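Write out this protein's structure.
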Amino acid sequence: MDRRPLLLAAVLALAVVATTVAVPAMVSARPAYEIPVTAADDPDSLDSAEGEAWTEVPAAGVPLSSAGAAVPGGDDTTVENVRVASARTDERLYVRLSWEDGTRDTGADDVREFPDAVAVQLPANESARPPITMGSTDNPVNVWYWNGANASQELLAGGPGTTTTLTDSELRTAATYDGGRWRVVFSRPLAGASENRTTITGTRDVDVAVAVWNGSNMERSGQKATSEWYYLALGPGPQGPPYEAILWTVAGVAIVLTTLVTIEGVRRTRGE
């Protein structure tokens, strides 16, 4: 008796089982370094760090490490991870950052007191990735900065130590501290107000990096915990319903072929 058809059917059956298990994971998996951007229509809720709209926005865990700057204590940072979520309306981009911090440091009344702080870094020209260390002269970055004293700034940087405050800023911030966790929201119009500001077209992904300072650890300036470059998933990509439909179509075809081969194998075994 020729057992090859049955063996082939068994192999294909195993392939179908593997596909059935793997396809849902492939569909829902998030590419490395991606921060999803959710379309939303409730700007008032998004403007609040505790707004209900944020419950519908997925967050990505972003690991942090010391920037290693050549300053006293530059390698001594304490924040190791930040949760980053992003949403957009027709007019504004929103980024919410959340991280654990056992102390709420908001003032600088003494020369040895520093507020907690967080910053978001974006390329001024979103078509080219700048150096992670505050950009360069030829490829600058925009920096959105907030600290625990509720001070916020929109900055332009062309390398370490070159920050310039941008005037006429339309950056908005909001923050809460609860249960040992900061939640800070930045938002800004999609269109940049000048050539030195990132314009969010929605037709391409935009690189993003973050930095966090823990004031109680006397972190300030170059003594900070930073991320690698990630990207805000604003452009078209392989994710979404069309990609999902293709994957499930392939799985369906595999199931049909397996069934046909199995039937043929059984028929031949019986000598039909």
